[in-house]
Protein: Drug resistance transporter, EmrB/QacA subfamily
Amino acid sequence: MTETVRRGSRRLTFFVLAAGAGFFAMLQSLITPVLPTIQHDLHTSQNTVTWVLTAYLLSASIFTPILGRVGDMVGKERMLVVSLASLALGCLLAAAAPSIGVLIVARVIQGIGGAVFPLSFGIIRDEFPAARVTSAVAAISAIVAAGGGLGVVLAGPIVTALDYRWLFWIPMVVVGLTALAAHLFVPESPVRTPGRIDWRATVLLSGWLVALLLPISKGSAWGWTSGRVLGLLALAVVLLAGWLVAEIRSTNPLIDMRMMRLPGVWTTNLVALLYGASMFSVYAFLPQFVQTPTVAGYGFGASITQAGLLMLPMLVAMFVAGILAGRLASRFSAKAQLATGAAFNVLATAMLTVAHDTRWEIGVAGGLVGLGIGLAFASMANLIVGNVPSWQTGVATGMNANIRTIGGAIGAAVVSGVITAHPQANGLPREAGFTMGFLVLTGLALAAALAALAVPSARRAAAGRRPSPATEPVGELVTVPAGR
Structure:
């Protein structure tokens, strides 16, 4: 009877974790098809409105390791509730935002919810049987991938029936209920990792990300050789170097650089960085391309709903590939699936570069992107799980998701700068801007595919992940009294 109750509790816990992670991923892409609508409604530029996406990804990149670390110290369930509540609060502010500045601030608050990834993976590690950890982590990763694709498809019908602000009202209600469910039903983990937050590393991490993304996104407006751009890029390099030194020397690092040096970890994270840059940019700019009025000489003048329907092949392919990934695991290794997924992404972005004149070409390219994401997300999670000690599953998988988000923020800023560099007289981007943007994505996708080939095989990874005494957990297990 007790075991039956525990299994039921695990199912409920998994459902809550999946809902939280899925809705965060959905909010990454839900607003991308309506960026032109937001730009018009809030009277801003295309370059500025892109920060509605970039700010969300940047905030998640910063807060994910911080709250993940706090969760290890004070309780993962508590921080899960905080993350979900922040996501709901950000949705409330975004729904009522009177200006683009307020909307960007709201998206920063929503980004705090990015901590649901490491917290969810850590809870799975602590609460689920060891034999089920890998499959549960892969399932959450697949749901995250599907959530991102679903957001692009659902945006149109919601905006058509209601208004773009309902893209925030609806998630606010659902995420708020999910936060309540997490408080009521997700058990508090008995595992604690004593330590403290290294605020110096936190400030340096925030600093180099902002110093990098701001000039990349504003380079076309400020001038790529201007003092502001060159000065900020130089500052980013200095702050990045300072952050790396601080993390290496810290006794309580936000990101354990010893773990990051494991061959199976750093190669998979490199794939995540490059893949994230390509994937999030496709989410952001492909819907904008198909919505471009035909007066620009390209595009389809599609409505938001029509743009979502053109993205439907991507969602279907993503769902199918996500299901097949688990079933193919016995025949095709995680590395093989990752490399295959990356190859699909190369084909998709290359196709968009040379063939984007008809709707079927967009649909086929989107389907290839979906196949790639479905295979890559699950395989990256399993590669990380298979390459780190069990007590580092949560932080390692969470960091992989975070690096993917950092890549997305960088990729979105870079491609936005490329697309908007030389607008037409009517303010619309030139077709050459999108073509060059798709070419940049092809380069990123190709680099991700090559990095996937460098991931160690399972046998080599198993031999290389034996922990040194320096990485053994000390004083990690602390029993927490039952109840609240």
